[in-house]
């Protein structure tokens, strides 16, 4: 065992092509594939060669997040589209230096943040409200109303694989219907369309000709039946949503149509792939066999474990979801998933809110200045805890502080919190799916932090394989679009798995079982202390500013009334 080092490595069960075949594949390009990668914080457009899937051009921009209230997260749908067009334009400009042009792009795929919900006017094409992000918790009251109606937050888990939670699109659409007059009126007039971000993008790229989604995104709405892979009438009735508002559900990989928008630099190109970003990452990590597991480390963490062609329904709060369906006639592959709501966001909080970190990108440097976290534990439950706890009433805590605690210990504890939350989910996955999980595939922006990767291996006691792609989401979406029937830029052969750009760095555990058990036990105790922090108060009279103005005016009012009464009395007396 190598201690504390990351080793350049190829995944143990990924056979690579010979040098001759590799050279040959690089020369015999069959065409280019473009990918729109719409994430929570960034939007990008990448262009890949095929069949070797080498990224030859890319452009990314930041996407602003609007927070009108604590726990509310929104984005401007029009900014999304403008950013997509800008990224595509800039990426295409890079093609000539690689000997290509825009006309070489054969097809385009889309991968997007899931659950985030947009409603728009089918007549004008304009959004009726900002996009409600996946982590937005304004629908808490709506959740309570629905749970009160069905008596159990897991009432629909057997049909959808999901609990009733603020996380999912059905609750967001219901909230918009109940709270936004423009949405309510558009629904009455049957001109309201609703969907996840992929549907909004496709609608705009095709000038409203296509209102579609794929099974991976649809499986995250709490409206799709996993067995039929269609919108469920019972769910639609429960949430009060008309099916005509929703997109048609398709497979992930098929020819959907042509891009026709005059605003788009991609006009005339084919659309042939749609995947939710975490499912695209699972495919891009080549986790195509049951038991293979990946974690994407970004502002949040998303762990998916491939469970094959049979859905596994969790008893420990994990989500059952569609992993991919690579064609209308292809088998549907399922996964179980656990989400860590706050990962990289905890480092941003340390930078922007409490000013412990000058720059979140320096977290590794600051954390390495101390050998341990000094028994400090950070539970970043800013908006509650997700899988496997699903406790909306939890709130963040930093515990174990002493007079010797420095900011470096807190930064290291923040990194460790990401690792502990990952272990929470991995432990459940192993119990649920029955497959041995003996390694963890890792990607995402945060994986550039070597200390985080080492801490992760030390926390879970198994190797961590970090993809050298850093973000395999766009790569997975590229493969999905390229292999669609009718495009045929490549043939997806999961048993062979010989893709040149799938290389890994390996981090091996350096801790003992005893050490891991002790530290994980303390993490569990810290989590227990974060639960139940939000306690609903009984409604009492609130003294608003108006109340206080009224109360403060009473003495003056009494004085004026009594003075007027005395004046009247004196005049009456003098008249006598």
Automatic annotation (TrEMBL):
What keywords appear on the UniProt entry? ATP-binding, Glycerol metabolism, Kinase, Nucleotide-binding, Transferase
| CDD domains cross-referenced by the UniProt entry | ASKHA_NBD_FGGY_GK1-3-like
Q: What is its EC number?
A: 2.7.1.30
A molecular function (GO) held by this record is:
glycerol kinase activity
Q: In which pathway does it act?
A: Polyol metabolism; glycerol degradation via glycerol kinase pathway; sn-glycerol 3-phosphate from glycerol: step 1/1
Species for this entry: Drosophila yakuba
Q: Which Pfam families match?
A: FGGY_C (PF02782), FGGY_N (PF00370)
Q: Does the keyword Transferase apply?
A: yes
Residue ranges of domain Carbohydrate kinase FGGY C-terminal in the record: 299-483
- Does this entry carry the keyword Nucleotide-binding? yes
Listed Gene3D superfamilies: 3.30.420.40
Q: Give the Carbohydrate kinase FGGY N-terminal domain ranges.
A: 33-284
Biological process (GO) annotations? glycerol catabolic process; glycerol-3-phosphate biosynthetic process; triglyceride metabolic process
Q: Which GO terms describe its cellular component?
A: mitochondrion
- Protein name as it appears in the record: glycerol kinase
What InterPro entries is this protein classified in?
A: ATPase_NBD (IPR043129), Carb_kinase_FGGY (IPR000577), Carb_kinase_FGGY_CS (IPR018483), FGGY_C (IPR018485), FGGY_N (IPR018484), GK1-3_metazoan-type (IPR042018), Glycerol_kin (IPR005999)
* Record family assignment: Belongs to the FGGY kinase family.
- Name the NCBIfam families for this protein: glycerol_kin (TIGR01311), PRK00047.1 (NF000756)
In which domain of life is the source organism classified? Eukaryota
């Amino acid at each position: 065992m190598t201690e504390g080092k990351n080793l350049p490595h190829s995944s143990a069960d990924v056979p690579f092509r010979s040098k001759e075949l590799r050279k040959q594949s690089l020369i015999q390009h069959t065409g280019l594939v473009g990918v729109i990668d719409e994430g929570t914080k960034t939007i990008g457009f990448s262009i890949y060669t095929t069949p070797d899937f080498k990224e030859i051009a890319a452009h990314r921009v930041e996407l602003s997040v609007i927070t009108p209230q604590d726990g509310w997260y929104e984005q401007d749908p029009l900014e999304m589209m403008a950013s997509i067009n800008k990224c595509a334009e800039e990426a295409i400009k890079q093609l000539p230096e690689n000997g290509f042009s825009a006309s070489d792009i054969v097809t385009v795929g889309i991968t997007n943040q899931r659950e985030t919900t947009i409603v728009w006017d089918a007549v004008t094409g304009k959004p009726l409200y900002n996009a409600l992000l996946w982590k937005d918790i304004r629908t808490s009251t709506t959740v309570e109303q629905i749970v009160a109606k069905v008596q159990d937050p897991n009432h629909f888990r057997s049909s959808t694989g999901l609990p009733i939670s603020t996380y999912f699109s059905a609750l967001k659409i219901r909230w918009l219907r109940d709270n936004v007059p423009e949405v309510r009126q558009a629904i009455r007039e049957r001109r309201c369309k609703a969907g996840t971000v992929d549907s909004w993008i496709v609608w705009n790229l095709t000038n409203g000709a296509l209102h579609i989604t794929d099974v991976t995104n649809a499986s995250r709405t709490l409206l799709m039946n996993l067995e039929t892979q269609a919108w469920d009438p019972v769910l639609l009735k429960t949430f009060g949503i008309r099916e005509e508002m929703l997109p048609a559900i398709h497979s992930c990989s098929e020819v959907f149509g042509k891009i026709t928008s005059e605003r788009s630099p991609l006009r005339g190109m084919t659309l042939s792939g749609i995947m939710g970003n975490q499912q695209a990452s699972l495919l891009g990590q080549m986790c195509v066999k049951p038991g293979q597991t990946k974690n994407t480390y970004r502002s949040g963490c998303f762990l998916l474990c491939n469970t094959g062609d049979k859905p596994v329904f969790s008893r420990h709060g994990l989500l059952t979801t569609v992993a991919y369906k690579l064609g209308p006639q292809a088998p549907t592959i399922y996964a179980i998933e656990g989400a860590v709501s706050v990962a990289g966001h905890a480092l941003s909080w340390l930078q922007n809110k409490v000013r412990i970190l000058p720059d979140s990108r320096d977290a590794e440097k600051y954390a390495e200045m101390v050998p341990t976290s000094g028994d400090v534990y950070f539970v970043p439950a800013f908006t509650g805890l997700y899988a496997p706890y699903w406790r909306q009433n939890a709130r963040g805590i930093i515990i174990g502080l002493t007079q010797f605690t420095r900011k470096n210990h807190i930064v290291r504890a923040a990194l460790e919190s990401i690792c502990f939350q990952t272990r929470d989910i991995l432990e459940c996955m192993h119990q649920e799916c029955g497959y041995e999980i003996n390694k963890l595939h890792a990607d995402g922006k945060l994986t550039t932090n070597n200390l985080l990767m080492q801490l992760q291996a030390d926390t879970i006691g198994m190797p961590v394989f970090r993809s050298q792609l850093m973000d395999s989401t766009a790569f997975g979406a590229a493969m999905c679009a390229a292999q669609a029937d009718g495009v045929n830029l490549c043939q997806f052969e999961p048993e062979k798995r010989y893709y040149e750009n799938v290389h890994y760095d390996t981090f091996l555990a350096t801790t003992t079982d005893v050490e891991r058990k002790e530290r994980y036990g303390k993490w569990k105790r810290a989590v227990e202390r974060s639960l139940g922090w939000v306690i609903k108060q009984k409604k009492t009279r609130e003294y608003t500013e108006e109340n206080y103005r009224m109360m403060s005016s009473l003495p003056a009012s009494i004085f004026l009334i009594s003075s007027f009464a005395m004046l009247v009395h004196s005049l009456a007396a003098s008249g006598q």
